[in-house]
């Protein structure tokens, strides 16, 4: 799976164009819209790979790309807020209980709160790829938040292995990207290109994992463009 993932874009006819555009968008992602477009592309990758289509998508139909990307970012933000809410409630509760001089019991309580917050962060990191995959295949923003439908997939060894492989690809990409950024001027661009390539490869793994868990034939997929999907 990992070998196939890292050659996913490489085997595309537009590999250079797609990778360079993606890298430039990652580089400019601080401006928000480029980040939205990157995640719109990720949604396309998930939509295709989850139905067994290994042909990498192109950067086209920018309106649809923006709509899907905005919805993906909304899912990311909504899930990303959960650990902050959990941590705020836990640390706030401990602080109110022990005051400014925590002592031994307070120190233990703060330690437990830290571990629970970390657990919430890991749970979110584990769930988000599945939420994005379900949104991409269902075409509804709400599909990414239907935890009752997500839970059976999250509990499988197939998803766990796919998620670990995807995390490994992202980690390796981040490491290489960090090394490349040490190169003056050009390094930032090369690092962004590698980051984009790693992100797409990782979500290729997630998409193919989702296809194994929820097989769908090409004939069963909808024909309407992404931008025409229902909002919820």
TrEMBL record:
* InterPro entries (alphabetical): DUF4013 (IPR025098)
Transmembrane: is it a keyword of this entry? yes
Alphabetized, the UniProt keywords read:
Membrane, Transmembrane, Transmembrane helix
The record ties this protein, via Pfam families, to: DUF4013
Superkingdom of origin organism = Archaea
Q: Where is the signal peptide?
A: none
| Transmembrane parts of this sequence | 20-42, 73-98, 104-133, 154-177, 183-206
Keyword Membrane present in the record's keywords: the answer is yes
> Which protein are we looking at?
DUF4013 domain-containing protein
